[in-house]
Write a structure and sequence with these properties.
This protein is α/β, with parallel strands linked by helices and about 160 residues long. The chain has helices at about 20-30, 45-55, 75-80, 100-105, 125-135, 140-155, and strands spanning about 10-15, 35-40, 65-70, 85-90, 115.
Length: about 160
């Protein structure tokens, strides 16, 4: 967004192997002109890094977080426990259960620690939802969504 130069969306994924599936998220944010940061850190293999990143996100200017993980997929919930920012979870497709395991891990959050969830490998929708969330407090972000939806209707 023209008024923003520092990242307002944080993208975290549990493994470098998730990067390709998250490219549509980054591409959509680029198309909207929304600055973001990306980090790879597993809730299970690098819990201290996840804690540090999530607990300092709001202070760095992050307003919405997108968390992608597969299998046990606890990353979104762990991040949500450490930040006041809304968290959008992206379940990654897995070889074991096709991503259903990831999806169920993400949507079964305990009361008080909500995580929004998109479809399996729904990275593009996560970006759109993030900008919609930003649009609740930013007219420029809201207009980007209005224009995006108008263009979809014309296609």
């Amino acid at each position: 967004m023209a008024c923003e130069s520092t990242p307002v969306v944080g993208i975290i994924m549990g493994s470098q192997s998730d990067m390709a599936a998250m490219e549509p998220c980054m591409a959509q944010l680029d198309e909207f002109g929304v600055p973001y940061e990306v980090v790879v850190a597993s809730a299970h293999r690098k819990p201290a890094q996840v804690h540090e990143w999530a607990s300092t996100a709001a202070g760095r200017g992050i307003r919405v977080i997108v968390a992608a993980a597969g299998k046990a997929a606890h990353l979104g919930g762990v991040v949500a426990a450490y930040t006041p920012c809304p968290v959008i979870a992206v379940p990654m497709k897995t070889s074991d259960l096709g991503g259903l395991d990831s999806l169920l891990s993400m949507v079964q959050m305990p009361s008080g620690v909500p995580v929004a969830c998109v479809a399996i490998n729904g990275a593009k929708n996560a970006a759109i939802l993030a900008v919609q969330m930003l649009g609740t407090g930013c007219d420029e972000a809201r207009q980007k969504i209005v224009d995006f939806k108008a263009a979809m209707a014309e296609a």
